[in-house]
Specification:
By secondary structure, the protein is mainly α. It has a domain of about 80 residues: Cytochrome Bc1 Complex, Chain D, domain 2 (Orthogonal Bundle), CATH 1.10.760. The chain is about 55% helix and about 5% strand. Helix 3 crosses helix 6. The protein starts with 5 loop residues before the first helix and ends in a 5-residue tail after the last helix. About 10% of the residues have low confidence.
């Protein structure tokens, strides 16, 4: 048998002592035996459970539904729908951006009914709160 130094013996003993604990921990979590992906979103996630809304290619791939057409024409006067589709903002942030676009970016200010339709559409489809 080889001569083992004191430090090596200590490491060997620690490995033996903690080895049984490690195997128990390994049995408790073994990703190869797990049937559910631990990195997958929880099933209670509203974004996962939300109904799938088909994009409308005629309206720049905005989700089809009430307000899509008004939103398309209001917003694409200045930018593409890609900037809208990548958003996930709070409702308050949508309100702030609306005012900012009118006041600082010279966006055309529609009547109150159209404003409500567009903001409701944006908050329904592109809000971090839903």
């Amino acid at each position: 048998m080889k001569n083992i130094s004191g430090l090596s013996r200590l490491a060997l003993c620690a490995g033996l002592a903690f080895g049984s604990t490690a195997s128990i921990a390994q049995e408790a979590y073994d990703p190869m035996r797990k049937t559910v992906n631990p990195l997958a979103p929880a099933t209670a996630n509203p974004m996962v459970d939300a109904p799938v809304v088909e994009p409308d290619p005629e309206l720049g791939n905005l989700p089809a539904g009430p307000g899509a057409e008004d939103t398309f024409y209001q917003c694409t006067a200045c930018h593409s729908t890609a900037i809208i589709r990548q958003q996930s903002l709070t409702d308050a942030r949508w309100d702030y951006l609306w005012d900012w676009m009118i006041e600082d970016q010279n966006m055309f200010e529609p009547d109150d009914e159209t404003k409500d339709i567009v903001l409701t559409y944006l908050k329904t489809h592109f809000s971090s709160e839903r």
